Structure to design on (430 residues):
């Protein structure tokens, strides 16, 4: 029997899944890793922990399935997208922590770039100028890590999103690649020509020598060389996590739409083989490239979703486990007049306000604190998610595409009184 291994490298955890030939899940390994907050608005990960947690979960999943590497036909990789890593080509050592997509340290710089070049960048990349994307993070690393810019200009450094970093390590530094779905999130890739763009590189002051080769989203890129437990498995697929979810939810037809809940919440709509420019500040992005066929998507981005549940657990210590919030939220009928804007990383679609911050309004002295808080958090996650379509185009979706077993989704769908299923008539979110 043939088996497929999937790497799901996310913002909060790394996960590996072994699938059987018929698509059923055989085994799962999952491991959280630390979030690093050096100062207000900064979010980082240790690239070594990303790598180790991902390979550890892969080894665990194969072991649980009672298999060995030779039983695995291929591995596909999906990943948190805009998170930025720069490392030394010779040693493979990162020059700094990974700067996570939620990080806001480059907001002021992005405001300047938006004012001067916003229309040009939107036309070429389909993106709003925002600290969310990789370009300004790369610029910050080159300008703030001693010696980094000189090394970059001497071709001594490599840049990658998380997919690139994993493949570099899996192949012992032999393969420096990405795919169009990830490249399109850097703000350096022209989604019309499908190439790194010299004009964009000049705007951000980034030398092209550090960039990975852009390959298709589905082909044999090479074989795993390390760790030994995975040696010989072919690497055969790459896609950013939200585009992978669009594909995984079978949104192959133009107009098919998905919404998924993770650390953030993202609604994507397949627009076929032509990029569609949004009239309402949705992003235009590459969905995937298979063979010579490139498909595009519109995207509504909510930066903070499940991360709020993590915040309740780890920072406020209101719950012991993420799953605890579901029963508590269901135990009350309303929010007690309390409203919460979870803008911990600014606001994405449709506002693109980098300076927005989290806000709590409306509590009265008589209101209980603990239970309404755990009710309003998932309730407002739900409403922020549909805002991408409702606030920009007046569309009320018929349902929500979901990842099975995600408790925050079930809570939010209850709050919104929407079914958790694929869209039957997705309409348009442009």
């Amino acid at each position: 029997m043939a088996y497929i291994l999937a790497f799901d490298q996310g913002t909060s955890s790394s996960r590996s899944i072994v699938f059987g030939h018929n698509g059923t899940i055989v085994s799962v390994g999952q491991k959280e890793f630390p979030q690093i907050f050096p100062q207000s608005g900064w979010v980082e990960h240790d690239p070594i922990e990303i790598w180790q947690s991902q390979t550890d979960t892969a080894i665990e999943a194969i072991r649980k399935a009672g298999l060995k590497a030779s039983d695995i036909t291929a591995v596909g990789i999906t990943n948190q997208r805009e998170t930025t890593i720069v490392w030394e080509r010779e040693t493979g050592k990162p020059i700094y922590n990974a700067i996570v997509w939620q990080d806001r340290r480059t907001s002021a710089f992005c405001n300047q770039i938006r004012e001067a070049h916003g229309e040009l960048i939107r036309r070429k990349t389909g993106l709003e100028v925002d600290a969310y994307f990789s370009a300004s993070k790369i610029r910050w690393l080159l300008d703030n890590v001693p010696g980094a810019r000189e090394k970059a200009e001497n071709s001594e450094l490599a840049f990658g999103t998380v997919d690139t970093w994993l493949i570099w390590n899996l192949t012992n530094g032999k393969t420096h690649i990405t795919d169009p779905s990830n490249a399109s999130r850097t703000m350096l890739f022209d989604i019309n020509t499908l190439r790194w763009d010299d004009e964009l590189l000049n705007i951000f002051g980034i030398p092209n020598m550090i960039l990975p080769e852009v390959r298709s989203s589905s082909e044999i890129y090479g074989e795993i060389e390390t760790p030994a437990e995975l040696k010989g498995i072919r690497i055969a697929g790459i896609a950013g996590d939200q585009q992978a979810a669009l594909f995984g939810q079978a949104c192959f037809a133009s107009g098919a739409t998905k919404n998924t809940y993770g650390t953030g919440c993202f609604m994507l709509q397949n627009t076929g083989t032509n990029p569609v420019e949004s009239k309402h500040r949705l992003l235009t992005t590459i969905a995937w490239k298979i063979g010579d066929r490139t498909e595009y998507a519109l995207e509504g981005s909510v930066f903070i979703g499940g991360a709020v549940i993590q915040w309740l657990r780890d920072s406020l210590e209101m719950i012991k486990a993420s799953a605890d919030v579901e029963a508590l939220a269901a135990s009350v009928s309303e929010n007690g007049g309390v409203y919460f804007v979870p803008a911990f990383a600014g606001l994405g679609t449709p506002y693109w306000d980098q300076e927005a911050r989290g806000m709590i309004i409306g509590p009265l002295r008589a209101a209980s604190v603990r239970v309404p808080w755990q009710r309003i958090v998932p309730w407002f996650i739900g409403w922020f998610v549909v805002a991408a379509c409702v606030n920009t185009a007046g569309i009320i979706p018929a349902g929500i595409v979901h990842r099975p077993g995600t408790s925050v989704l079930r809570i939010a769908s209850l709050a919104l009184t929407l079914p958790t299923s694929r869209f039957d008539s997705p309409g348009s979110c442009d």
